[in-house]
Amino acid sequence: MASKQLPYPVDKSSKLHDEYKFTLPEVYREVAKEELREDDAVREKALSEMRHWIAENPYIFKCRTDAKFLLRFLRYRQFSVPMACEALERYLTVRELYPSWFKNLDCTDSIMKEILDYEPFTYLGQDGSGRSAFLIRYGRFNGEKHSPLQDARYMALVLETVLEWEEFQIGGCQAFIDYRDTTVNNFEKWSLSELKTIMDVYSRSYPLRYGDIHAAKMPKFALPVVETLLSFANPKFREKIRFLNISVLLVDIGIGETYGRFMETDNVRWNG
Prior knowledge:
Blueprint: H1 26-36, H2 40-56, H3 67-76, H4 81-97, H5 99-102, H6 110-118, E1 121-126, E2 132-137, H7 148-162, H8 166-171, E3 173-178, H9 184-188, H10 192-205, E4 210-216, H11 223-231, H12 235-239, E5 241-244, H13 246-253
Parallel strand pairs: 2-3, 3-4, 4-5
Antiparallel strand pairs: 1-2
Helix pairs in contact: 2-3, 2-4, 3-4, 6-7, 10-11
């Protein structure tokens, strides 16, 4: 059952817009300026142009126009308004094509709460460059109990949550994937079309700024599925993936230094 709360208006032609104020730590202002070409004047002008484009677009019927939402796409495309508008179109299109995956997400849904309790995704914190780091323990997805659709909705719920964080929008992210405790069902339950959809979403259609993606302990039985999945990714995405042994992965996570002690991540709760 979907939440009845609608915190953001979706009237694309509204003349009333929130007044944006940059409130993040200085490191993010510096990253935004150096990497994204963002400053107060650029941001205000780009938001105005993007809102005008949305209002005039005959194919968009409803769309959030609050600053935080539009900045997802402007920051993703380094404040090129035409490219940000194209990214927004891709995002809206994929949501319309696969509504069962991406619409009416609700963290209070019983299945979502169950997957959240398994903690397949753990937020580790941020490094000195402002990048958000996530530990993905793929073996914590239930290969038998939950369907690909349910797992995909959980992933979408997490993505929609973190994309609301401006730290994530500006600093981007890096992922550490631990394949220990995975089963054959974790991989073989995904159909070819589902693999293609999920990779299109996460490497093309969602405004995600990836750093490196580190993976370890992938079992041999997973190789055909992972190779198929990566065949659908764009080349730049594939270049970011590194396969490591587990000891190197734990060092990369930064035990006791960058992200805190690895063994303490079990105490971090994901609040959808």
